[in-house]
Amino acid sequence: METILQAWQLVVAFDPALVQIVVLSLQVSLTAVGLSLLVGAPLGAALAIWPFPGRQVIIVLSNAMMALPPVVVGLAVYLLLSRAGPLGSYGLLFTPTAMVIAQAILITPIILALTREAVSPLRRDYAELLTSMDVGKWQTLRTLLWDARFGVATAVLAGFGRAIAEVGAVLIVGGNINGLTRVMTTTIALETSKGNLQLALALGLILIFLAILVNAIIYTVSQVGRRYVDIE
Which of 73, 131, 125, 126 is closest to 102 using CA atoms? Predict the structure, then answer.
């Protein structure tokens, strides 16, 4: 109980080291989510709208990639960014950029698959209307993405939840360098092994709060989306 109390005091006192770690974690995860949204949402909508040869294979692969092992992704990005790798000359290994890349690879399939599931019913509902109005392919994609915005928002939040809790991939490509690449999950693992349970518990409390917050927002967004559909 004394350790938990000390951890809580670190949180309410906005301990500088704690704040730095939390801010970096949010910066990395939010950047990865933004990049994944730019890639995953249009691709997911395209898979839902446009039939083409090999479409089912891509859908199966994208769904399978939702279960990508984080350490395997971390190893792949490490090899890509290492000095002997094709992108080694850019010096990105053991930087926040490398962590963003690893997280983006992990969560893009999640946003893609959930966006496709959100857009697919709308394509069936609006197919005749859009055809009769002679709406082009890209305009159709933008229209259905906008109508599926609540589902896309849920996909984004799910991706953020995966990113903020990630430890394996970011540990491999980030190196857990103090003041540079040390995020909440890697710090918890390190400080627990060192016996510094106060900081580890403080970060754990923040992670739990973020998990509850994300799930509450997902629930709220889904409820608002259902009401919006019922009103229409």
Answer: 73
Q: Quick one: the chain helix, strand, coil %, rounded to 5?
A: 80, 0, 20
CATH of 2-231, one of 1.20.1560.10, 3.40.50.1970, 1.10.460.10, 1.10.3720.10: 1.10.3720.10
Q: What is the DSSP string of 29-90?
A: HHHHHHHHHHHHHHHHHHHHH---TTHHHHHHHHHHGGG--HHHHHHHHHHHHSTTSTTGGG
- Sign of the CA dihedral with 44 first, then 210, 198, and 97 last: positive
Q: At what angle do helices 70-81 and 96-132 cross, to 10 degrees?
A: 110
CA distances to 47, 58, 93 from 54, in Å: 10, 6, 35
For residue 128, the 8-state DSSP code is H
> What is the full DSSP assignment across 154-185?
HHHHHHHHHHHT--HHHHHHHTT-TTTT--HH
pLDDT number for residue 170? 93
Residue range 150-205, pLDDT digits in tens? 889 889 999 999 999 888 899 999 998 988 999 999 999 888 888 888 889 999 99
